[in-house]
Write a structure and sequence with these properties.
2 copies of one chain form a homodimer. By secondary structure, chain A is α/β, with parallel strands linked by helices. In chain A, strands 2-1-3-4-5-11 form a 6-stranded parallel sheet, with helices on both faces. A 6-stranded mixed sheet of chain A has the order 7-6-8-9-10-12, sandwiched between helices. In chain A, α11 links the parallel β8 and β9. In chain A, α1 crosses α2, α5 packs across α12 and α10 crosses α11. The longest helix of chain A has 17 residues. Chain A is elongated. The relative contact order of chain A is 0.12. At the A-B interface, α4, α5, β2, α6 and α10 of A face α4, α5, β2, α6 and α10 of B. β2 of chain A pairs antiparallel with β2 of chain B, so a sheet runs across the interface. Chain A binds a DNA duplex through α2 and α4.
DNA sequence: CCAAGTATCCAAAACGTTTTGAATAAAAAG
DNA sequence: CTTTTTATTCAAAACGTTTTGGATACTTGG
């Protein structure tokens, strides 16, 4: 492995000069810099990252906690989010450290990563309404970016989508078609995004003077099987649901199966709107019938989160690093007028 | 941040003693060790990983290349595999570095990570029949574990499932039920696992004296939409398929939609066997009808790959680190006798 | 021609560990 | 009582960078 010393000897200059030449300092002659760069290129020099980390005190690494076990988050979401982060980081020569944790291990793992100087900043996801991680990271002074939001008075950087609007727009679109019994296949009740979506859903109902019925909401991990079960429950009510809002493509698939199993037709007997986080392997526009969705890119969120982390490290104040993305509704065939309720 | 020097001063011993006490060397008095440990605990000492890395020359980190863009691999596979790796690594105090790459950037990214001392070993996945990465890593002498296999004379550590058997067992199960026209929804032709599955599928056909028909195989990214399209193609043949083998749950979902769209019933008019890599959010046993699958855990593979990487670094010879896991067939309702071909 | 600036280079210190080789004291062996 | 062994400790070097604070030589301005 070629190091600074080797280059210095080769070129008959000091280690300092080599270092400063490669790092673009102005106090080195351009001709010298050219010679150094050429030699570095020729000999394939790459700075030893660990030496650099030690002396600068910066790991040049962003950390992301990753659940080792079953998670509340669909696997595909994590992977898309990760890719987005990776995309942004590789543009900036930052590293991405995955911090595996199990059950309630997360803060302990954070502590370890922070104290041992492994990371300069963290990206935290899967946020709860009252998430202890925010307080903790604040207390220890570790820079972090949140994917989502939580209830706290502390200022923090975040990227989130307008989940209230997801619930609202979906419900309004269905109400506009005459639906009055709309089932909400939502995420876990203690997660912020799920709470927000229900808030939007309720606001839409209230605007149209329709009473909220808790029998028409389901809070669970957004999985295929849960979507199926909850939909069947909504259909079994005295006044069954004629429309559904699914929190993700995962439970939408379960809902669709329940619809078909009940012998109903999507877009005719039952309408469905799902939230789509955009996967390569499951596209609402190629389903039969095509699926009406609210859309937001998990990958883009990861990208933005990573960008924010870097800007945070560059000294950007937290107040400038708070974004809520709007979500658009893509109307397709799975939504139709409410059937006559005879 | 408390360091060795602080502990040493606090305890009136040398830095050396503190270091050796904490690292379990036998040449330190047990009473001293106890005092040191207590102080370390009390002051919250954590070794600076970067200093340790610099002096030992070991990054104590395993790397995994992660596609920044659309991938041939379903997002959920990546996440499950990652979790498995994380599980194993956190047990061993190893770090996991994600190495993002785009398009044909992969080897360049490997070079960077290796030369800058960021990783001690790599885990490589998404393997092709002739994969240049194996030769490269061999050449530069970087330890690595392959998830899958490739065609090379070089010895290398790998964990793989018996994909030939996946194809064979699935086909035999369908042939046993009288099916003669079996569509194969396979992965990309240049990927080893897909080649192997086709080999097994062909062997089964050959055993039963049935001619291979290339119109009944599809090679593509294993996505929902492709499963749908290929299944429709198989149904449109003069002699349509009465059974299907899907390479993943992703294209199985597309296949199921095509079956329903054609007005057919799964397990009655058409039989389906899918390969299931085990996700929390899509379970074959909770589908309607339940889905017959070959099963192998992506997570377990990740776990094992990471274990192997560590054993490799501990000096275990490559020959002891080559495993092929058997795959079992789980019979459920999606397979039934071949319908009368009139 | 001198003073002050400017451009260019470098030796040495520092980052926080691990490890080597030796030093000391106490115990055991002769 | 001397020598050898054993247990315990430590000072110093090393890892490969970055950064500080000069040093040198050359320009420029007066």
């Amino acid at each position: 492995m070629v190091k600074l010393k080797d280059l210095a000897r080769e070129l008959n200059v000091s280690i300092t000069t080599v270092s400063r030449a490669l790092n673009g300092f102005s106090d080195v002659n351009e001709e010298t810099r050219a010679r150094v760069s050429a030699a570095a290129e020729r000999l394939g020099y790459r700075p030893n990252m660990n030496a650099r980390r030690l002396v600068t005190g910066r790991a040049h690494t962003i950390g992301l906690a990753n659940p080792s076990e079953s998670s509340l988050i669909h696997e595909a979401h994590i992977a898309e989010f990760l890719s987005g982060i990776g995309e942004a980081l590789s543009e900036s020569e930052y590293d991405l450290l995955l911090i595996p944790y199990k059950q309630n291990d997360e803060i302990e793992r954070y502590k370890r990563a922070i104290a041992s100087n492994r990371v300069d900043a963290l990206i935290v996801g899967s946020i709860f309404l009252n998430d202890p991680r925010i307080d903790f990271l604040h207390k220890v002074g570790m820079p972090f970016v949140v994917h989502g939001r939580t209830e706290t008075a502390l200022p923090y950087a975040f990227i989130d989508i307008d989940n209230e609007s997801v619930g609202y727009k979906s419900a309004i679109a269905l109400l506009d078609k005459g639906h009055r019994r709309i089932g909400l296949l939502n995420g876990p009740a203690d997660m912020t995004f799920a709470r927000d979506r229900e808030l939007g859903y309720r606001r839409a109902l209230a605007e149209r003077g329709i009473a909220f019925d808790s029998a028409l909401t389901d809070n669970a991990m957004m999985a295929d099987a849960h979507g199926f079960a909850a939909t069947q429950r909504f259909f079994a009510l005295k006044k069954p649901a004629t429309a559904l809002i699914a929190g993700s493509m995962a439970n939408a698939i379960g809902a669709i199966r329940a619809i078909r199993t009940a012998g109903l037709m999507m877009g005719k007997h039952v309408s469905l709107i799902a939230h789509d986080d955009i996967f390569h392997f499951l596209k609402p526009e190629s389903m039969v019938p095509t699926l009406t969705t609210t859309t937001s890119s998990m990958r883009a969120a990861g990208h933005r989160a990573a960008e924010m982390a870097i800007r945070l490290l560059d000294g950007e104040p937290v107040e400038n690093l708070q974004q809520v993305w709007d979500v658009e509704l893509n109307e397709r065939e799975s939504v139709g007028p409410a059937p006559d309720q005879g």
